[in-house]
Amino acid sequence: MSEAGDGTGWQEAVAPREVLQRGLYYDELEVGVRYLHRPGRTATEADNVLFSSLTMNGQALHLDAAFSATQPFGQRLMNSMWTLATMVGASVSQITQGTLVAQLGMTDISFPAPLFHGDTLYTETEIVEKRRSASRPGQGIVTMRHTGRNQEGVVVALATRVALMWCRDEPREGTE
Q1: Cα–Cα distance measured from residue 74 to residue 57, given in angstroms and rounded to the nearest whole number
Q2: All residues at 6 or more sequence positions from 83 whose CB lies less than 8 Å from its CB, including other chains
Q3: Which end of the chain, N or C, is more open, meaning fewer C-beta atoms within 10 Å of its C-beta?
């Protein structure tokens, strides 16, 4: 009980409202809508060295500053797989957190401009297509187009991703 300003002096304590962050269900996604994922992510030298080392990518363009200085871009490039993973990862909390069944595939991946240490990657996702699954009731297939841009708006990465998503109000297998 707590003191109230209603003249009676006391009232029942009310539990605070809780909100669980989640992605969007299949039904909530609209073709043509662009989702801007913020904040951006500034790429660091540590990100590049650690990611390249963890994935056994010994490419000198990621790890060797002296060598990279003699190459066309004059400096080390961020590992493109870091860029891709970070771009897709940026979309998770807004689009697929808790609403994704499975990632089905990625196509049309390109890196039209380099990303360097100190650049900030900003990501947006456009819903390109969606349809109900013919073989999996309560689920739908969504095609998304991810675009990564640096802090100057230059496109540094593109990828099309196809995902199997839960529908909002339909029962999930094994949950009832």
Answers
A1: 20
A2: 43, 111, 115, 121, 148, 156, 157
A3: C
Between β-strands 100-110 and 155-166, what pairing exists: parallel, antiparallel or unpaired?
A: antiparallel
For 71-128, the pLDDT digits (tens) are: 999 999 999 999 999 999 999 999 999 999 999 999 999 999 999 999 999 999 999 9
Taking CA 158 as the corner, what is the angle to CA 152 and CA 164, rounded to the nearest 5 degrees? 135
Residues 45, 50: Cα–Cα separation, whole Å: 8
pLDDT digits (tens, 9 = 90+) for 11-64: 778 888 887 879 999 999 999 999 999 999 999 999 999 999 999 999 999 999
Cα separation of 157 and 153, whole Å?
Answer: 11
- Beta-bridge partners for 139: 166
Pairing of strands 139-149, 100-110: unpaired
| Burial (CB count <10 Å: 0-12, 13-18, 19+), residue 110 | exposed
Q: How far apart are CA 164 and CA 102, in angstroms?
A: 5
